[in-house]
Design brief:
2 domains, 4 helices, elongated
Length: 97
């Protein structure tokens, strides 16, 4: 009976190995759909890192907009302030939870 149990376990192991191989292949094919969005996310992250490394360009752009379009700059400034406050509130709420 011990030999029969070993055969059953080997068959089960083989079936699981085949299933895991099929699942890996399926995951690889389905992951191709994420290739483009992930590339965009990588570009956005690279842009964010560049802005962090060169904040003077961001400030220069904001100053240019403020000089050329003061109303637009004020409107966007208020929107950014509102978004920043909302983010702060979410972070405080997350710390409480």
């Amino acid at each position: 009976m011990n030999g029969q149990r070993a055969d059953t376990l080997r068959q089960r192991q083989l079936a699981l190995l085949l299933r895991s191989e099929l699942l890996r292949q399926r995951l690889g094919m389905e992951a191709q759909a994420l290739k483009v969005p992930m590339a965009w996310a990588d570009r956005a992250r690279a842009g964010w890192l560049w802005v962090q490394a060169h904040p003077q360009w961001l400030l220069a752009g904001a100053a240019t907009v403020a000089l050329l379009r003061p109303r637009r700059a004020l409107r966007w400034g208020l929107r950014l302030l509102w978004a920043w406050r909302g983010l702060q509130r979410l972070q405080q709420l997350r710390k409480r939870i």
